[in-house]
Amino acid sequence: MTSPSRRAFVTAAMASLLVSCGGHRAGQAATARPSSTPPPARGSAKAARAVGRSVPMRLQIPALGVDTPVMQLGLAADGSVQVPPVTAHDRAGWYRNSPTPGQTGPSVILGHVTVGAYGDGVFRHLARLHRGEVIVTRLANGTRAEFTVTAVRTVAKAHFPADAVYGNVQRPELRLITCGGPRTSDGYLDNVIVFAALSSAGP
Fold first, then answer.
1. Residue 1 Cα to chain centre, angstroms
2. Can you list the residues of the chain whose pLDDT is less than 70?
3. Which structural domain range is residue 39 located in?
4. What confidence tens digit (pLDDT) does each residue in 78-90 have?
5. By CB distance 3.0 to 4.6 Å, which of 21, 64, 122, 201 could disulfide with 179?
6. What is the CATH number for 79?
7. What is the Cα–Cα distance from 97 to 149, expressed in whole angstroms?
8. For the chain, give me the number of helices (H) and strands (E)?
C-alpha cells in the first residue's frame, strides 16, 4: 500500500512545479509529468548506505559558500510544491513529502535565485556547481549526510524532467532546484537542477 506521504510526493510530481523566483510567479509552469528525458549519468560517486528518516536542519555547499537553515515545504492550494517565502533572510526549503536526505529515494530541496528587492537568493549561484563537488545536509538527529554532485542541468520550465527528478531510485539521492536562464517580466524561463548521490553519512 502506498503511504500518504508517498502519494503526496507522486501527486506533486504529476502536478505543476512552480518554482517562483524574485517574487514573481513563473510565467511558464515546470510541467511535472513523465518525460522521455533520460536521467543524468549517475557518475562515480562512492555509494553509501541509507540512513534513517530525520528532517534536514541545515544545507551547506562549500564550493558556493552556501550555509543555510532549511525549512519544511508542503503543497500549495493548486497542487504545486510550495517555495520558500521571499524574505530578506532567504533560506532553502525541503519538500516534506519527499524522502529526507540520506533515505533511499530523491530528497528535494528548493531555493530562490533572487528574492525581489532583497537581492540574491540562497541558490543564486547553483548553476556554477560541478560534478564531483560536495553538498552537506545536517539532520535533526545529528547525522551529517554528505552528497556528491553527479550532474547539473538547466532545463526549460515547459519541459521539466519529472521522471529524472522525482522518479524512483535505488539509493539515497538529492535534488536541488532553483530558477535560471533568461528572465522576463513574468520570471525566469528555466530551472536549474542539481543531482547528487549520498557519499557518506555519520555524526
1. 26
2. 1-46
3. 4-202
4. 888 888 888 888 8
5. 21
6. 2.40.260.10
7. 22
8. 2, 10
